[in-house]
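Lab notebook, bench 4. Still working through the backlog of constructs that have no structural model yet. Next entry is a single chain of 519 residues. Request: give me the structure tokens for it.
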Amino acid sequence: MPQTDYIAVSGPAFSAAELDALLSSALERAFSDLASGVPLPGPAQSRGAGSVLVLPPDLTRIHSGAGPLTAAVCRFLAACEGGSLPPGPEPSVPGAPPSAGLRPATPRRNWRLGAIMPALGTHRPLGPEEIAFMFPGCPPDKFLPHFWREDAVELGRLSAEWVEAAFTGRAASGGPEFSGGRVFRGGWPVQVNRVLRDGLPPDSGGPPAPFSLVISIGQVAPHEVAGMANHTKNVFVGTGGAEAINKSHYLGALYGLERIMGKAETPVRALFDEAFRRYGSLLPPVLWVLTVVDSAGTIRGLFSGFGRSCFEKASALSERVNISCLEEPAPKVVVWLNPVEYRSMWLGNKAVYRTRMAIAAGGELVVLAPGLECFGEDGENDALIRRYGYRGAEWIRRAVEADGAGLSSGANPPVSLSAAAHLIHGSSEGRFSIRYCTRPGRGPGRKEIEAAGYAWGNLDEAVARYVPELQNACSEQNANDSAAPKTGWKTSPGGEHFYFVANPALGLWRAAAGNDDCI
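Model written out:
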């Protein structure tokens, strides 16, 4: 049996050269195991050398390190069509797997890059400039978009009984009762983009040729739906279909964000893991490449393997470096949304659900959103947010039931439970106020933001009031996270004391008082 993890290292920081060497070492060991045909810890076994599909995240995970790692995979595979990698020195990084001091010569003939498909989930596809920005050095003609409403195929289905037991069984162990109602009906579909199962047609035409390997790259961090992001979520949400994404997100929202975020073992994670256990053999083997990044944007760990162990180790590190506990709830939290990363409220509301457990009752969340252009990542979800707004879990649950198991945007009524989940996640449940600060004349204005259930603020006035050093960073041309003050307690020029978050995607904030998870 091969080693479960090829790389499992952590530290205060890693250079680009160290990460490249570590990943190359992991790929060499993985290709060696695939070539020898030894049993792999995952459900799928070696198909021999062939085409590789790479699944990185999109621009919303720009800080994950996935861009340079994807480029490193491309370089490795570009050199893989001619023979074997020569032996070479091991990466000199503490915690790297021990060896005799030389990299093994790895059979690499006939391995090649087939395609790169960013795991978009419900997000919009990347444009050419975004691909060049996120993935410098990767061949742009190899990128494929994922359209979550059109491209998915169903591998199988978890029964309604199994899904209900996964959620209600955990509820029975403590906490409030959980009822998924009619959402359990029909079970949960195991959906992926069809190219994961079928492959791509060859350049010369003919039937699709299946991939021989999937390399899934991404960041493990607290997540509002799965508890911790990535691993099997990257496959079943990142390349998943509408029914699977809708149901998993809504069930997670009903179960309770506070009970899920920052935890590796959750009912939604159980869905993804069980789906992979049962139906992963219908896919190529998946090599996981996982990073952990701290709130300053520094890569603190790299983990890789075919099994689940690499995810468990990455999650344990993420709990230590991504979850911050404030001694007391903050009366005011101010969050900066970099205009390059956050152009929709769908993404920007990380500011709400990543900080809501740290905000005092009756407090205020101020969101500085210079790049806000729209509510949803697509027209359908944008219309749903405008129609229903951020009204709280109970209000949304009643709207879902009234609409017959989903939310309708009106004239064209496809069911969208993922939008319902988003609306629940984006609500303070009346516990504190939320003020979105934008520039008049760009994107949703005061009337639209207030109609969606939030207060509105003038961006320029709010920046001058709280963080005047960000005044030049409010345009995409000048946006730079290094310009933002460090996350932590601040005092404004006018003497206001508040907690500042430089990038909500890089952490989870809780108040220690009354929170057992902070002990």
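Notes after review: Residues 294 and 321 are 6 Å apart (CA to CA). The chain has 17 helices and 20 strands. Flag for follow-up if needed.
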